[in-house]
Amino acid sequence: MNRVFNARRAAVLALAFSSSVAAQGSVTSNAFNPAMSLILDGRFATFDNDPEAYELPGFMLGGEAGLGAEGFALGHSELVFSANIDNQYYGQLTAAVAEHAGETEVELEEAFIQPLGLGGGFTVKAGRFFSGIGYLNDQHMHVWDFADAPLVYRGLFGDQLRDDGVQLRWLAPANLFVELGAEALRGGRFPAGGAANEGVGAYAAFAKVGGDVGVSHSWRVGLSHWQAEVEDREAGGHSHGHGDEESASFTGDSGVTGVDFVWKWAPGGNASDRNFKFQAEYFVRNEEGDVTVVAHGNPPEQGRYDGTQSGWYAQAVYQFMPRWRAGLRYDVLDADNDVDDAHVAEHAGLDPEGHTPERWSVMLDFANSEYSRLRLQYSRDDSYEAADNQVVLQYTMSLGAHGAHPF
After folding, report:
1. Which pLDDT band, with edges at 50, 70 and 90, does 28 fall under?
2. Calpha distance 209→22 (Å, rounded)
3. Domain encompassing residue 318
4. Is 6 helix (H, G, I), strand (E, B) or coil?
5. Pairing of strands 202-213, 324-339
6. Taking the CB of the first residue and of the last residue of the chain, which one, N or C, has fewer CB atoms within 10 A?
7. Rounded to 10 degrees, what is the CA torsion of 153, 155, 106, 226?
8. Is the peptide bond preceding residue 352 cis, with omega within 30 degrees of 0?
9. Is residue 384 part of a domain?
10. Where are the beta strands (DSSP E) in 116-246?
11. Gap between the Cα atoms of 251 and 304, Å rounded
12. Alpha helix segments (H runs only) across 132-184
């Protein structure tokens, strides 16, 4: 293993165990004095279209999908507490602070514990956490290379998939990076809902393999699957263009399969001056069940639904000189939905309307240090009927202790 991928492997292990000293059975000096960090995120955004009318034809949006506020606004700030509880356990809590509909909301984003020192390459996480599927999903938003989620994440996961449950990971003792993982989840959050099977309504599994090519290149490939029994999953985060009195829900089976690929280059393994990263992800979701729509005070309408939605993105980010990076991203979605009631399909957002959502984004950012970043992003968003020109100026600042970032 050369130093490029060894560094990435070390980051994975750092995230999994948090403290190698505690993993060996000793208590660190901050065992009862949690490390604290604060991520400050703010932005100024302009859109040609009304962000309240945002939609992705063919997709029932939920979670935090949407464009956010126009003009000056706080973004997605985070307050993180973490510590070794004793010589056997590690704990972390992340509270997200964001503004929705003019009101500031505090949400428990993550809250989990991890046993330390299990050995054999195994780690366990229990509580609320981001699922390990895909590449971007288990990364916090401030780590992303663009100011927003790819369209496929927005359409399928409501930006990110997180849930309550337990996760098991195994890191193979080999030169080639091999990690396997499985999750049993409550299934109470989008894209699931209802917490079926007495609170164990969703499952996930993933496999990740990576390695080095010479001293300057490293790569990783991942395969993921998520499955849930859904009970009354509510659509939200958009209006379908029909008004605020409308609601839609889905009950049935949902499954998402994805593949991801990442390639990194740094001359001589030193990424401080120049580096390049290419990443791409593809997901396909199959759903079957019933959709119920309540519109404008009318009696509920129900339709049988059998649908397939898919999408992918590819992006490249180049640090062309110290502190400066430029990036390009392309997104595209596709929906093939069969709903036996056209009116239900339209009001639930499942009618593709003969449109294929796609988007081009370019960004330029400046990082004065690893703790601060300024970003300018422009997107030509052709997600629905009228193409939208979107400009975002963003700052992301990190205060306090902060863990290692994943590969």
Report:
1. very low
2. 27
3. 49-68+113-397
4. helix
5. unpaired
6. N
7. -60
8. no
9. yes
10. 122-130, 162-171, 177-185, 202-213, 217-234
11. 10
12. 151-157
Q: Please state, in angstroms and rounded to a whole number, the distance separating the CA atoms of residues 25 and 2.
A: 29
Residues in Cβ contact with 395 at an 8 Å cutoff, skipping those fewer than 6 apart: 40, 41, 42, 43, 372, 373, 374, 375
Helix, strand, coil content of the chain in percent (nearest 5): 10, 55, 35
pTM: 0.89
We report the CATH number of the domain holding residue 279 as 2.40.160.10
Question: Structural domain tally of the chain?
Answer: 1
Is 250:289 a contact under the CB 8 Å cutoff? yes
CB-CB neighbours of 9 under 10 Å? 20
Predicted confidence band at 245 (pLDDT cuts at 50, 70, 90)?
low
d(CA 397, CA 28): 27
Is residue 180 in a domain? Answer: yes
Per the CB < 8 A criterion, the answer to whether 257 and 211 are in contact is no
Tokens of 266: 């740094």
User: CA dist 67 to 84, 109, 151, 212, Å?
Assistant: 37, 20, 11, 38
Residue 319 lies in a domain: yes
Q: Which two tokens stand for residue 189?
A: 């959050």
At residue 386, the 3 state secondary structure works out as: coil
pLDDT of the residue at 32: 58
Q: What would the two tokens of residue 215 be?
A: 């001293």
| CB count in 10 Å sphere of residue 242 | 14
Degrees to nearest 5, angle at CA 201 with 195 and 203: 140
Percent of the chain predicted with pLDDT > 90: 72
In a domain, 93, yes or no: no
Note the Cα 183 to chain centre separation in Å. 16
Beta strands 35-47 and 275-294 are unpaired
Q: Write out the H or E segment, with its range, that includes residue 292.
A: strand 275-294
Tally of CA atoms within 13 A in the half-sphere of 77 that contains its CB: 20
The rounded distance, in Å, linking the Cα atoms of 53 and 336 is 22
DSSP letters, 56-92, are -TT----TT-S---SEEEE--EEEEEEEE-SSSEEEE
As a dihedral over the C-alpha atoms of residue 42, residue 48, residue 53, residue 59, rounded to 10 degrees, the angle is -90
Q: What is the pLDDT of residues 347-400, one digit of tens each?
A: 899 999 889 999 999 999 999 998 999 999 999 999 988 899 999 999 999 998
**Listed residue (132, 160, 166) closest to 406, CA to CA:** 132
